[in-house]
Amino acid sequence: MQINYKHHDSQLVFRRTADKIQLLGLFVNPPFPGTCLKGSSILELQFTTRACSSGLGQVHTVSDDRMKMVMIDIFTRQLGDLLVIILKDLTTSMLVEINYLLYRGLPIIRMWARVRNDSSVPINLHMIRSTILHNIGGICSHLHRKNMVVYYCADLGRGCVYRQNLAQPPPKTHPWVMPGTLPIGVVEEADTGRAWYWHLEHPLMWNWEIGERTKGCLSLWTNNHVPRQQSSRKELKPGLAVETSAVSFGLASGGSHQAWDVLDTYWRYVLKSDQRLLAMDYRH
User: Fold this and answer.
1) C-beta of residue 108 within 8 angstroms of C-beta of residue 101
2) Options 3.30.870.10, 2.70.98.60, 2.102.10.10, 3.30.10.20; which CATH number does 2-271 get?
3) Which residues pair with 218 in a beta bridge?
4) What is the pLDDT of residues 204-219, one digit of tens each?
5) Which regions of the chain does DSSP assign to beta strands (E)?
6) Measured between alpha carbons, how far is 76 from 156 in angstroms, rounded to an integer?
7) CA-angle at 136, arms to 41 and 8, nearest 5°
8) How far is Cα 39 from Cα 34, in angstroms, rounded to an integer?
């Protein structure tokens, strides 16, 4: 069963069964591609359980295709509609709350997750990976990518915007862990003028990647490699939770210039009061 959430001129689309859910992507409204699209895991965790006092335990890599969906609902908030998806891994008792805030005044969707340890033993959290966009362009084909380019900024001091064609080879990882870099990007489809854009709000220890998570389907995902604490990964005791950095994203029908304008507006009027963010201006 397909679930569509209309947001300005786009639709955020998922595929679900009774207790499973997958992300299909963000598409124009209307139309968007049909049921032939492949779904993608929204979130993946990597952690180690500590089963005894010696600290030895088992390494787990858990994605939402293994988790059971226990709730999906949408709530009205001051800034827009909040979509909440709650997943639980029955083997390790890890609980994940995935949030999508669909802003009312801007074509921006803000996504973040909260991970809680509901087990009876501590875990050492290694990595949280979130799929932000999937089926970019709506066609799972390498040939289609000759019309697609990615723009990204990699030098705050010089204000450089780099352009890379997505046809061949697939783009590499772009880490944003050094001072002076900008955790934003735009993928533009030249023949249609559609542009998908994103912004990592707290880039420390985060990076974004664009490539194939499902064969032939272009995706964007973010990784949080959890900082080490005294040469070990972050410990999450029973009952405690950790929240990921938020990623804002959207789809513009007016090309990359409109995408940059939306990001600029979002930065200036929504995020500029947040002192935890980098003091940067990414207009070009």
Assistant:
1) no
2) 2.70.98.60
3) 212
4) 566 788 877 666 678 8
5) 2-7, 10-16, 21-28, 43-49, 59-63, 68-76, 80-88, 94-103, 109-117, 123-133, 148-155, 160-165, 174-175, 184-189, 194-200, 206-214, 217-225, 234-236, 241-243, 247-252
6) 37
7) 95
8) 12
